[in-house]
Design goal:
- The chain is α/β, with parallel strands linked by helices.
- It folds into two domains: about 300 residues, 3-Layer(aba) Sandwich (Rossmann fold), CATH 3.40.50; about 110 residues, DNA Methylase, Chain A, domain 2 (Alpha-Beta Complex).
- The protein contains 13 helices and 16 strands.
- The strands form four sheets. It has a ten-stranded mixed β-sheet, sandwiched between helices.
- α1 crosses α13, α2 crosses α13 and α5 runs antiparallel to α9.
- It is globular, with a radius of gyration of 24 Å.
Length: about 450
């Protein structure tokens, strides 16, 4: 009775050995960057120099539908060249024109991912027009056996709670669709400042890998608590404190995306189905609240300021304008009238710290960070008794981009692009762990 089991195990190890050796014999992981912006994923992955292999971006795509001038794509081309870069709406790109690759990365928009049955086929689905998650799905589906082994994606953390009247439905659709395509998935909400980086920016990162990879097999062969605390990609990269196993949520997902669209979390729509950390394997997800466990050096806003002698004068705020900023940042209670119903109501908001503290990580950079007009959410610092806004160079540094990476467009546009960007250090650390896991497995075979 033991012989067939040993044979099966040997066969499985041989298949995995062949798969991993194909990667390890190269000196890079072929990578495609979608929704590339100004290249945050690329910078993070190409920063990795401590291994004999690395990541090579073999194709990229950036398209901004709302603007005539493609500023982000132009800056991407300026920094990385025109070769294998696409500035075309991804919906119009043929999958056959995208090179085969090992990993797909990108920060896709948070949208409504619900689906409906096709008219022609009750088993088919129609994703909503213009929703870019379905472009990722299209690439994975049409690539078939040549689909990438790994995905590394980023989104706003509200994705886990979307939509408000059926919390978690959209993320459940993503998980189930990836499971149907043969992937196992991990996710983690990461606040960059919790791990020593200079900005308080919470984003959800999603890592998916095919079911014939080392990542899948490690999770498959270990206990849930160990996977969340020690074994998973995120646990190894961004350590967490011990989890209370009694508070881990688990549920089997339907593989019918239309059913999920119509029924997921309908009975308890205000309860969160997905918490800040978790994984999904073979259609079952496990999720838990977490707390970062970090004892390294912390970065603060004041560490990333440029020399005051090089700050353009237009970033300084005179005394008259400072009154407007203080009003915007202060607490207020305003009576308003609903224009449609005529109903009167009071709008209230509390005060914000002003100026921004130089001895703490920066607040989240927003897309409206640029421009001289007073704002509640823009950063204002005080240096040598003078108040000023943050410069584009400082915004780049807070996202851990190279200095002047976005130089060549207006200051307001540079600020907008950084508001849309990610913290490069997170990608770099995750990329390091991915390479180490692949490399360690290959050397053991």
């Amino acid at each position: 009775m033991k012989t067939p089991n040993l044979f099966s195990l040997h066969k499985r190890l041989e298949e995995q050995k062949n798969m991993n050796m194909q990667v390890s014999q190269k000196d890079f992981i072929k990578t495609v960057e979608l929704f590339a912006g100004v290249g945050g994923f690329r910078i993070g992955l190409e920063n990795i120099k401590n291994l004999n292999k690395g990541f090579n971006i073999v194709w990229s795509n950036q398209w901004e539908p709302s603007t005539k001038i493609q500023h982000a794509s132009q800056l991407y081309e300026k920094q990385f060249g025109y070769t294998n870069h696409s500035n075309e709406d991804i919906k119009n790109v043929k999958v056959s024109d995208i090179p085969d690759h090992d990993m797909l990365v990108g920060g896709f928009p948070c949208q409504d991912y619900s689906v409906a049955s096709t008219l022609k086929n009750s088993h088919g689905i129609n994703g909503k027009k213009g929703v870019l998650w379905w472009e990722i799905y299209r690439i994975l589906e049409e690539k078939k056996s040549k689909a990438p082994k790994y995905l590394l994606l980023e989104n706003v953390d509200r994705l886990l709670k979307s939509p408000a009247n059926q919390r978690g439905r959209d993320f459940a659709i993503i998980l189930s669709s990836l499971n149907n395509l043969g992937y196992f998935v991990e996710w983690r909400v990461i606040n960059a400042s919790d791990y020593g980086m200079p900005q308080r920016r919470r984003r959800v990162f999603i890592f998916a890998s095919k079911k014939d990879t080392v990542f899948y097999n490690k999770i498959k062969n270990n206990a849930t608590l160990d996977n969340l605390e020690k074994i998973g990609l995120f646990a190894k990269t961004f350590p967490i404190k011990k989890i209370d196993s009694s508070k881990i949520l688990s549920q089997k997902l339907s593989n019918d995306l239309v059913y999920i669209t119509n029924h997921f979390n309908k009975l308890t729509p205000k309860n969160n189905a997905f918490l800040d950390a978790g994984y999904m394997i073979d259609g079952i997800f496990y999720t838990s609240k977490i707390e970062a466990d970090y004892s390294g050096k912390y970065s603060v806003l004041g560490d990333f300021l440029q020399d005051e002698n090089s700050v353009p004068k237009e970033f300084y705020i005179n005394n008259e304008e400072l009154k407007k900023w203080k009003y915007q940042k202060g607490s207020k209670s305003i009576e308003r009238v609903n224009k449609i119903t005529g109903h009167k109501y009071t709008y209230s908001e509390g005060s914000m710290g002003f100026p921004d503290c130089l001895n703490k990580p920066a607040r989240t950079i927003i897309t409206g960070e640029g421009g001289a007009s007073a704002s509640r959410f823009k950063h204002v610092i005080e240096v040598n008794g003078k108040h000023r806004r943050l410069t584009p160079l400082e915004l780049e540094r807070l996202n851990m981009f190279p200095d002047n990476h976005t130089q060549g467009v207006t200051d307001a546009k540079r600020a907008f692009l950084m508001g849309n960007a990610l913290v490069v250090g997170i990608v770099e650390r995750l990329g390091n762990t991915i390479l180490k896991e692949i490399n360690e497995f290959a050397t053991k075979i």
